[in-house]
Every structure is written in structure tokens, then in C-alpha cells.
Amino acid sequence: MSLAKKNNIEDYLSQNKEWKYQNNCISRNFSFNTYMDSINFVVSLAEIAEQQNHHPDLSIGWCSVTVQFTSHDQGGVTEQCLIMSRLTEELFR
């Protein structure tokens, strides 16, 4: 998978304001009512990541999860990163 074009990333971010782009990654913080809600979200996201073979970097806090997508192999955001962020949004809803 090759790197996403800059205008594809910008278009995606303009439609998904909670996602941020920096340091060759897109990321978003998700908030939950309980700690276990956040853990269940992580488990479900891990299952999707395995199916898609594209895995996020995750940071778990108290009732929050920060999800970050990049391609370590490609050195930046790929189209698969954008797909995974969309799937993450669907899971959160």
C-alpha cells in the first residue's frame, strides 16, 4: 500500500474534524463512560485491525483511548490508514 496523497488526507480531515494529522500519523482521542467501555472498544478494534491487517498504535487511559494510524513500512499515512480510521468511527458509533 502506498502513501495517501496529501489532498486525500486533507479531504478526510475536513470531513472528520476530530482526527488530527501530525508526525506522519492521523490520530483521534475517544472518550467513554467507563473504563471497561474503553477496553471493550480496544478489543473490538483489535479484531477489525486483524481482519484488515493494519494495526493502530493505541494509548489507553481512564475512560479514553487514543488511536493513531500510520504505516511504519511506508513512513506515513496510507489509504489503508484512512480506511481503518473510518472503520474505527463506525465502531465508536
Write the layout of secondary structure elements.
Elements: H1 6-15, E1 20-22, E2 25-31, H2 35-52, E3 57-61, E4 64-69, H3 79-92
Antiparallel strand pairs: 1-2, 2-4, 3-4
Helical stretch tally: 3
Percent in strands = 15-25%
In sequence order, what are the helices and strands, one letter per element?
Answer: HEEHEEH
Mean pLDDT, rounded to whole units?
A: 93
Could you say how many structural domains there are in total?
1
Structure explained in plain terms:
This protein is an alpha+beta fold. The chain has a single domain, classed as Transcriptional coactivator/pterin dehydratase (Gyrase A, domain 2, 2-Layer Sandwich). It is 45% helix and 23% strand. It is built from three helices and four strands; from the N terminus they run H-E-E-H-E-E-H. The protein has helices at residues 6-15, 35-52, 79-92; strands at residues 20-22, 25-31, 57-61, 64-69. Strands 1-2-4-3 form a four-stranded antiparallel β-sheet, covered by helices on one side. Helix 2 (35-52) packs antiparallel against helix 3. The longest helix is centred in the middle third of the chain and has 18 residues, at 35-52. The radius of gyration is 13 Å and the shape is globular. The model has no long low-confidence stretch (mean pLDDT 93).
